[in-house]
Amino acid sequence: MRATIFHEPGKVTVEDRGTPAAGPGEIRLRVAAASLCASDIRVYKGEKHAAPGVVPGHEIAGVVDAAGEGVTGVAEGDRVVLCPILACGQCRFCQLGRRNRCVSRRTLGYDLDGGFAEWLRVPAEIVALGHVFPVPADLPLEIAALTEPSACVLNSLELCGVGPGSSLAIVGAGPMGLLHLIMARAAGAGPIIVSEPVAERREIAKRWGADLALDPARDDVLGAVRAATRGYGADAVVLSVGISSLVGGAIDLVRKQGVVNLFAGFPPGQAVPFDPNVIHYGEIVLSGSQNATSDQYRRTVALLRAVPHIDEVVTNRYGIERAPEAYASRLELNGLKSLVAFPGVDGR
Questions:
Q1: What mean pLDDT is predicted for residues 30-40?
Q2: 252: buried, middle or exposed (CB in 10 Å: 19+, 13-18, 0-12)?
Q3: What backbone phi and psi angles, to 5 degrees, belong to 104?
């Protein structure tokens, strides 16, 4: 089979690898689509670790074409998406249902082979944990591949308490910021204010339902957020870009007793200066969110059919031989989400 291989920061190639077989408790997935995450770009830039020689890709959808001995609940021909987390199932976080915080977690695409290949051997741990989710027949697998990032956004929005009538400020309108926008809008949030320096992305934000899409280099974002919220500030603020100098400004946008979520990952070793009295006297919750629970994955698969513009999030599609170009397009801010797609694999 053909597979994309991460060697070291700045080096990703496409090579021949043996087609895997499904061992006891495992399934083999014929990959239909795997999308590229901002975390994959951080690995490429040397800001995050992945094992040399690993196949990247943790945002995966495909069709089961082999099931190993002892597998139950998953059968050949099933259209599925994966939660890419291998969790111990025994630690405190796992017992609380928060396997994304497992103390010994491993993840497809970083620690074990992921979805940027024609086939994927899905480890028995993922199957046994129930991290293989069926895809409804009316949901294309290319859209289903967005389950993982969308589940991360659902986790973020639920952490922030965003629901009907919640005001939300989003700093950064890249793919994940825009996913926050359309999922929050689907949940009935509003007003939603987006701050984004790239004009093309501001226009997309307006078209996809932002009440305001502002240029931070030109517009008074703080004044606009306060004007839109009767002077209080936003109920929730999501920082969806990993630039540490923006943290203080994001805190300024939130109301007293509001929530600021540092959704994006940051380069290691960043220091963030801000006045702690703003947090103390404002009773502001400053948090982060990363990945999602298995229940959030389950609900996201059902939710994707109802999210407006979800079919427009992927703008760049590449066959396996051109997979390294997906990295280049994201580094150049060319379009939105990049996808490695395998035409003809849909299982319908």
A1: 95
A2: middle
A3: -125, 30
Of 279, 278, 250, whose CA–CA distance to 262 is shortest? 250
CA dihedral 269, 270, 271, 273 (to 10 degrees): -170
Distance of CA 92 to the CA centre of its chain: 24
* Cβ-based burial of 290 (10 A; exposed 0-12, middle 13-18, buried ≥19): middle
Instruction: Give the residue from 148, 126, 112, 111 showing the smallest Cα distance to 34.
Output: 148
Which stretches within 141-293 are classed as H helix?
141-144, 147-160, 175-186, 199-207, 221-228, 247-252, 276-282
Query: What pLDDT is attached to residue 164?
Result: 97
- The strand pairing partners of 347, in sequence order, are none
What pLDDT was estimated at residue 246?
Answer: 96
- At 210, give phi and psi (nearest 5°): -65, 135
pLDDT at 346: 81
Measured in whole angstroms, the distance separating CA 113 from the mean position of its chain's CA atoms is: 18
Q: How confident is the model at residue 347 (pLDDT cuts 50, 70, 90)?
A: low
Please give the biggest Cα pair distance in the chain: 62
152-288: CATH topology is Rossmann fold (3.40.50)
294-303 vs 147-160: helix axis angle to the nearest 10? Answer: 110
What DSSP designation does 320 have?
Answer: G
Q: Is 62 helix (H, G, I), strand (E, B) or coil?
A: strand
The CATH classification of domain 2-146+313-341, taken from the options 3.90.180.10, 3.30.360.10, 3.30.470.20, 3.90.190.10 = 3.90.180.10
Residue 185 has pLDDT above 90, yes or no: yes
User: What average pLDDT does range 220-232 have in this prediction?
Assistant: 98
Nearest to 296 by CA among 110, 59, 97: 97
